[in-house]
Amino acid sequence: HVQLVESGGRSVQAGGSLKLSCTASGYTFDYYCMGWFRQGPEKELEGVATIVGTKITSYADSVKGRFNISKDNSKNTLYLQMNNLKPEDTAMYYCAVRGGYCGLYFFFDYWGQGTQVTVST
């Protein structure tokens, strides 16, 4: 069965950087659309970034220029490099996977349990 396990979340000061990881198993990692989503305190779930293959990416406007999504197919691992973090980036971050078209506003089929990122001033 499909399993996604996130890691790397922690508390960090504004302006700092973090790199989240998501290790996947149970499907052919290389070809599916994968994404990072987040849900902040009292906020709705928000799409952050998606990637299909290793180069086709999309980002939410709020993170463009600061976050970078990437994949290492040899390790079945998805990454999210987050730079210049802001307090409004505070959220639980989830990775997810779907078949078919790839983008922030599609329904994703499988989800990890999440990793918490807290950005303080």
Write up this protein:
This protein has strands spanning 3-7, 11-13, 18-25, 33-39, 46-52, 56-59, 67-72, 77-82, 91-98, 110-111, 115-120. The chain is mainly β. The protein has no helices and eleven strands.
Mean pLDDT: 95
User: Would you report the number of β strands?
Assistant: 11
The DSSP helix count reads 0
Poorly predicted regions: none
Note the gap between the termini: 41 Å
The helix/strand class is: mainly beta
Q: Shape, please?
A: globular
Secondary-structure element sequence? EEEEEEEEEEE
Rg, rounded, reads 13 Å
Into which percentage range does the β-strand content fall? over 45%
Percent of residues in helices comes to under 10%
Largest sheet: 7 strands, mixed
Give structural attributes.
121 residues; mainly beta; seven-stranded mixed sheet; four-stranded antiparallel sheet
Give a quick summary of the entry.
With 121 residues, this protein is mostly beta strands. It is built from no helices and 11 strands.
Task: Present the secondary structure layout.
Elements: E1 3-7, E2 11-13, E3 18-25, E4 33-39, E5 46-52, E6 56-59, E7 67-72, E8 77-82, E9 91-98, E10 110-111, E11 115-120
Parallel strand pairs: 2-11
Antiparallel strand pairs: 1-3, 3-8, 4-5, 4-9, 5-6, 7-8, 9-10, 9-11
